[in-house]
Amino acid sequence: MSAGINHYKTDLREIFFTLFEQFGLSQVVGQAPFDAWGPEEAKAVLHETYRFSKDVLGPLNASGDREGCRVENGTVIAPSGFKDAWKKLYEQGFKTVGVSQEHGGQGAPMMLQMAVEEMLCGANAAFNMYPGLAYGAAELIAECGTPEQKHHYVERMLNGTWGGTMCLTEPQAGSDVGAAKTTARRNADGTYNIRGTKIFISAGDHDLAENIIHLVLARVEGAAVGTKGLSLFIVPKLRINKDGSAGPSNDVALGSIEHKMGINGSSTCVLNFGENDACVGELVGGVEHVGMSQMFKMMNGARIAVGIQGVALASAAYFNALDYAKERKQGGSFTKWKDPASPRVPIIEHPDVRRMLLEIKSHVEGIRALIFKLAMHTDKAKQLAGKDDDKAAYHRGQVEVLTPLVKAYGSDQAFRLCAQAIQIYGGAGFCQDYPVEQYCRDSKIFSIYEGTNHIQAMDLVGRKLGQAGGANFQQFMEDVGGFIEANRDHKTFGTEVKVLAAAQEGLMASAMAVLGWSQDPAKTQLIPLSANRFLQMMSEVAVGWLLLDAAVLAEKSMAGLSDNHPDKAFYEGKKWSALWYARNVLPNVEQAARLMALEDASPMDISDAAFSAV
């Protein structure tokens, strides 16, 4: 199947605003450890990434979805064009932008890396799964592996010679990772024989790289039950010769590939390890029983990456829907809707279409800002480490607090916003002639993998609220409060800033309620019942704050610009994104706080039989 046309489109001006004007990338680059970078170099990389995304990845998106993956002789064959795209991706350095120079990368700030990833994902989410998993697995080995493991694996996985995966899920366990049954038996030479089955393994097998390095959670024989007894192993698909080349099979067999609702160009595999008792793995870092803590280093990065996937597809859906709305003529003007002779107008003139477009625009811009803010905290924590440990700790704490918001809110909204884009098209959007139906299908998995969004919500209320003695959450609230106090009487946005203040108060009241429930055995069931709602509340406060912050900056920048200046309309758009979100979304936080205060436990009070008489 040949590649089709590119549908991917984004707004580099919006990305530049968020990076440089809102989060100060210009002040991050030029300083260690990012001293090799400057603003112009960063912009050049983004322009090139956009070109590559449109010219190489975008045309493969629909064709890869329709062709899907297939199995030949026990190996997954990726869709046509993917292998060539893989080669070009690494040759041109797009996957090594954020890789440390120690491992052959370019050492860019995370903010720049996230912007690059957004475009690669937006153009072809299924393709970008393959290098994304390899990157995450390599990062884990770089952080947790022995010196020999780092030398042996990391650079080859980061330069595209080898792929990589994370293997957690098992048929009987699902999200209950502690119920894993995969075993590891010690060998005399220090290696381990691995035996078990893993399911839903993204990029678990393919023909894009010479070898695939699996990171496998398994229980060493005699280890404790539950997550505490799990260890993490490096398990190559093919054994590796002393010269680094691929050797014979390592007894890792492809069981099957899943036939899915979306991301059909990405292979999702069942993998069987050690069917012939000949699968050999080596312990990550040489330490047993710390597999979960090691794996979470990759999981946290993966959760941030899911948020990027979400905003990438929602943004792509938005720009396609916007173009369609400008071109498609249907119906007369709403000012003359009773006049059958009224000429047809582009549907962007219809109020409900404009409402839907502004809803998607505001959410995309706000979620992107949330992601870049997290990345900014990561970059500053890295720069301040060993220089100002208190400030570095503050930035690391904000990364911890924001990660579940980025993953869960970003992915939940992506599916909803892509569905909204279909609605703008009407019946045409439901057809494969336009890309939005694929964006919607592809985005559904985001709220499920890398820990379902309820797991993210429980992480937030169960761990992050109380982390560092509650300091991380409190500092987040203080940051929001500082913006409110500085802008409460703003001439343009003062009313909306007061709405943000009311939402913040509702969020704080709900946080105190959660703390109270945790100390009352009779009410602890309210925590999982309310966790998702609380995460959405906190996400909406964060996004509302960042949109208003962007609008305040945009208004200052707009002052003095002529009406025909190209930035005039752009800055006006920032204003309306913030106003719409503050007026239509932020009030929901107050209502949600009232609902939490009701302490409704009806899902627990209803009997199983009462759900249905069937």
UniProtKB/TrEMBL annotation:
- Pfam families of this UniProt entry? Acyl-CoA_dh_1, Acyl-CoA_dh_C, Acyl-CoA_dh_M, Acyl-CoA_dh_N
The UniProt entry's GO CC annotations, sorted and at most eight, read: plasma membrane
Residues making up the signal peptide according to the UniProt record: none
> Where is the Acyl-CoA dehydrogenase/oxidase N-terminal domain positioned along the sequence?
40-160
Q: Which UniProt keywords apply?
A: FAD, Flavoprotein, Oxidoreductase
Q: Which InterPro entries match?
A: Acyl-CoA_dh-like_C_dom (IPR025878), Acyl-CoA_DH_CS (IPR006089), Acyl-CoA_Oxase/DH_mid-dom (IPR006091), Acyl-CoA_Oxase/DH_mid-dom_sf (IPR046373), AcylCo_DH-like_C (IPR036250), AcylCo_DH/oxidase_C (IPR009075), AcylCoA_DH/ox_N (IPR013786), AcylCoA_DH/ox_N_sf (IPR037069)
Q: Which domain of life is it from?
A: Bacteria
What cofactor does this chain's UniProt record say it requires? FAD
Boundaries of every Acetyl-CoA dehydrogenase-like C-terminal domain copy: 476-606
Reaction(s) catalysed by this chain, per the record, are:
3-(methylsulfanyl)propanoyl-CoA + oxidized [electron-transfer flavoprotein] + H(+) = 3-(methylsulfanyl)acryloyl-CoA + reduced [electron-transfer flavoprotein]
Record keywords: Iron included? no
Give the enzyme's EC designation: 1.3.99.41
Q: Does the keyword Nucleotide-binding apply?
A: no
* Listed GO MF terms: acyl-CoA dehydrogenase activity; flavin adenine dinucleotide binding
Q: Which residues form the Acyl-CoA dehydrogenase/oxidase C-terminal domain?
A: 291-460
- Acyl-CoA oxidase/dehydrogenase middle domain location is 166-273
The UniProt family comment states: Belongs to the acyl-CoA dehydrogenase family.
Q: What does this protein do?
A: Involved in the assimilation of dimethylsulphoniopropionate (DMSP), an important compound in the fixation of carbon in marine phytoplankton, by mediating the conversion of 3-(methylthio)propanoyl-CoA (MMPA-CoA) to 3-(methylthio)acryloyl-CoA (MTA-CoA).
Q: What protein does this entry describe?
A: 3-methylmercaptopropionyl-CoA dehydrogenase
Protein source organism: Stigmatella aurantiaca (strain DW4/3-1)
